[in-house]
Amino acid sequence: MAGKTKCVRCVVYTRKSSEEGLEQEFNSLDAQREAGEAYIRSQKHEGWVLLPDRYDDGGYSGGSMDRPGLRRLLDDVKTDKIDVVVVYKVDRLSRSLGDFAQIIDLFDKHGVSFVSVTQQFNTTTSMGRLTLNILLSFAQFEREVTGERIRDKIALSKKKGMWMGGHVPLGYDVANRKLVPNELEAALVRRIFNRFVRLGSTTLLCKELNEQGFRTKRRRGRDGRMNNGFPFTKTTIYKILKNRLYLGEIRHKDKWYPGNTRPSSTRTCGTRPRRSWRRTAAGAPPTAGARRRRRSRGCSTAPTARR
């Protein structure tokens, strides 16, 4: 009588780098899992059995080990709950050669086999390991090249004056990767520059703006809700006065480039400050205390700053 086939406990691990499309009824993770389950069924004669546990990471990069689904998978491997890990492609488990080597070492330590549905190999053989390392090396190379291309594209776009993300400054909205004037906010930007020239103090200006009910730019929070702005602080005002974007420039790293933010002369929104504005935005604005100290020494109280 033939011996009873040993039960081989199998799980499917799935991953997708971005969250795009995950809201669909049948998404990329579902497709990967379906392929993995079909492969496990094809090995039923070898005693392969699919465990009900799911290990899915939607919206997580393969270049990082900090993934909830992967952490649970490795924890179950360490407690000897799994015999075989099935993935759709090698890079679904990891795109980092170093991280992948650690994972495979852990699998070997606990007698866990690793299977790729679309790149069939056996990790228990030397040839299978060589094939795996070659595939993973190309996966890591592809990730690094893609990252370089993205960084180069962002740098080139900024040099062309395009807006590539981040907090949109007060006085602007974004349309087609360009900053366009928000007329209601633009009036407030002009007011901030003009009033600072008269007051020469961020403390006094901050108090005045808040007493008159002005608030910072309305933004959408992480929960998707739109806030109504917050009271101004001296730091907020100082950043506005120092922001060279209001001179029509875009920053990339430590360099500033001509941007696409220059409004027409009839639609100025603060991006082309008058000469008096340039003097205040060029250096640190003096506080009210500094003005009093200068006055006591007989110095000028004009709100000038270093060029």
Automatic annotation (TrEMBL):
<dbReference type="GO" id="GO:0003677">
    <property type="term" value="F:DNA binding"/>
</dbReference>
<dbReference type="InterPro" id="IPR036162">
    <property type="entry name" value="Resolvase-like_N_sf"/>
</dbReference>
<feature type="domain" description="Recombinase">
    <location>
        <begin position="169"/>
        <end position="279"/>
    </location>
</feature>
<feature type="compositionally biased region" description="Low complexity">
    <location>
        <begin position="298"/>
        <end position="307"/>
    </location>
</feature>
<protein>
    <submittedName>
        <fullName>Recombinase family protein</fullName>
    </submittedName>
</protein>
<dbReference type="Pfam" id="PF07508">
    <property type="entry name" value="Recombinase"/>
</dbReference>
<dbReference type="InterPro" id="IPR038109">
    <property type="entry name" value="DNA_bind_recomb_sf"/>
</dbReference>
<dbReference type="InterPro" id="IPR006119">
    <property type="entry name" value="Resolv_N"/>
</dbReference>
<dbReference type="GO" id="GO:0000150">
    <property type="term" value="F:DNA strand exchange activity"/>
</dbReference>
<feature type="domain" description="Resolvase/invertase-type recombinase catalytic">
    <location>
        <begin position="9"/>
        <end position="161"/>
    </location>
</feature>
<dbReference type="InterPro" id="IPR050639">
    <property type="entry name" value="SSR_resolvase"/>
</dbReference>
<dbReference type="InterPro" id="IPR011109">
    <property type="entry name" value="DNA_bind_recombinase_dom"/>
</dbReference>
<feature type="region of interest" description="Disordered">
    <location>
        <begin position="256"/>
        <end position="307"/>
    </location>
</feature>
<feature type="compositionally biased region" description="Low complexity">
    <location>
        <begin position="279"/>
        <end position="289"/>
    </location>
</feature>
<dbReference type="Pfam" id="PF00239">
    <property type="entry name" value="Resolvase"/>
</dbReference>
